[in-house]
Amino acid sequence: MMIRGVRGAITVEEDSAAAIWQATQELLQALIEANGMVEDDVASVFFSTTPDLRSAFPAKAARDMGWTQTALMGVQEMDVEGGLAQCIRILIHWNTTKQQSELQHVFLRGAVVLRPDLSLEQKNNLNGRSKQ
User: Which residues lie below 8 Å from residue 69, measured CB to CB, with a gap of 6+?
Assistant: First the structure.
């Protein structure tokens, strides 16, 4: 078993606690479902927000989903000119037997621009699953 990093990102329309928690839960749930994760196999999770999001800690969304034993950490992204605004990112350190190529990273809403290559791959995977 190896520890693997699984990434995801999502944008929000506004800086409010409700928007941050809802988007974080949506992204975290998508990562869990895409990879078949269970909390017991997760070593830690890093949450980051762009500097324009200050109303809530995204990690609270994971706690509200029942992730009470996993180490969670929140940080603020660098304020880089031209960077994507109102973005929440997640990095999950996951103990798994899966190979790097089997991991499903998830980018939603406006965050698709961060990794359009992976977003296209996500669509193809979802389309393939729906035909089965």
Answer: 39, 40
| Full set of structural domains in the chain with CATH | 2-130 (3.30.1330.40)
Q: Is the alpha carbon torsion for 15, 17, 19, 24 positive or negative?
A: positive
pLDDT-based confidence at residue 129 (cuts at 50, 70, 90): very low
Radius of gyration of the chain (CA): 14
Alpha helix locations (H) across 14-132?
17-35, 59-64, 116-130
pTM of the complete model:
0.89
Condensed to tens digits (0 to 9), the pLDDT of residues 9-60 reads 999 999 999 999 999 999 999 999 999 999 999 999 999 999 999 999 999 9
User: For strand 71-76 and strand 106-107, is the pairing parallel, antiparallel, or unpaired?
Assistant: unpaired
Residues in Cβ contact with 91 at an 8 Å cutoff, skipping those fewer than 6 apart: 5, 6, 7, 45, 46, 48
Return d(Cα 38, Cα 20) in angstroms, integer: 23
Distance CA 39, CA 44 (A): 9
Cα(92)–Cα(90) distance, integer angstroms: 6
